Amino acid sequence: MPRGTRLDAPGTLHHVMVRGIEGSDIFTDNDDRQHFVFRLGMLAKATGTTIYAWALMTNHAHILLKSGDAGLSSFMRKLLTGYASEFNRKYKRGGHLFQNRYKSIVCEEETYLLKLVSYIHLNPLRAGLVDSIDELDHYRWSGHAVLMKQIKHDWQERDAVLRRFGKKKEDARVAYRRYVEEESKTGQQPELTGGGLIRSTGGWSVVKSLRKRGEKQFSDERILGSSEFVREILSQADETIKALVFVAGLREKAAEEVTQRCEEAGIMVQALQAGSKRRECTDLRKELAEKFVLEYGLTYAEAARLLGVSTSAVNQICRRRIGLKNN
């Protein structure tokens, strides 16, 4: 699948995720973490990039930022290239450190800023790097400790976050802490990092209802927000970006479902997509082909690529299923 063009207008809120290549660690010790944080702060100041939240894990990192005049791509290139060069020099290694492309999602600020701040700052707790919210308050490698006034980074935008919880800073900090604790009970919240359609419409039941009525909602896996927000962002983009609506979120959801259903059935994804004739593979392939075409609205060719069969095979599966339902 060709890569989508980035939505990179200055002043846009982005949730950025960077990961080590093939899941490898990008932080080995606290000196590595300190170097990354130093570069993050230095570049934020130099480029006018606003950092609202961040968290360093072991093999990945999250950043919530509003891009400066140079845009997101320039900022991330300088951040990651500089860090990777120093990391490779230190550990006498060569080649890529990060996955070829970091993931960035344009976010609707009014609706999602606080959700994303808490989601990002809770990552160390959910990953077991700290054992409690109390420990998280003092965790050096997350912006949560900055908001809790336990560490100081003058490049992190604290006031814009705390103002949303109250006029007086100390009262606001208490309210923020209470909010994070409540959000810690909500689970992983994959909707904050996945494809755009389900987020824009409110769930797959709504998606299916809209499809039955012949209505399409604007969505894109790179945008987190309402359908109206997606439409507005895309209206400001070039024609290439404008074309990437609706099906993009469906395609990503379908790919995720292939992986999930294979795991549940004890089937290797490679076996399914290589055309295995085992009964469990053929049964699952038929079920998913029908779902992807008749429910998600993918083309026969798109479903065929995901399932490792020919376009004509998907066509026959769907025609056969439709015929059975009509009898």
Describe this structure in words.
The protein has 17 helices and five strands. With 327 residues, the protein is α+β, with helices and mostly antiparallel strands. The chain folds into two domains: 13-191, 2-Layer Sandwich (Alpha-Beta Plaits); 194-326, no CATH class. It has a five-stranded mixed beta sheet, with helices on both faces. A hairpin with a 3-residue loop joins β2 (50-56) and β3. α13 (247-265) runs antiparallel to α15 and α16 (300-307) crosses α17. Mean pLDDT is 81; it is low at 1-5, 194-208, 214-220 and 238-246.
What are the key terms here?
Alpha-Beta Plaits, 327 residues, single chain, 17 helices, globular, 5-stranded mixed sheet, alpha+beta, 2 domains, 5 strands, disordered N terminus
Task: Lay out the secondary structure.
Layout: E1 13-19, H1 30-47, E2 50-56, E3 60-66, H2 71-91, E4 103-107, H3 109-121, H4 123-126, H5 133-136, H6 144-147, H7 159-162, H8 169-183, H9 196-201, H10 204-212, E5 223-224, H11 227-235, H12 239-242, H13 247-265, H14 269-273, H15 279-295, H16 300-307, H17 311-326
Parallel strand pairs: 4-5
Antiparallel strand pairs: 1-3, 1-4, 2-3
Helix pairs in contact: 1-2, 13-15, 13-16, 15-16, 15-17, 16-17
CATH architecture of the largest domain: 2-Layer Sandwich
Count the DSSP helices. Answer: 17
Strand segment count:
5
Q: How many structural domains are formed by the residues?
A: 2
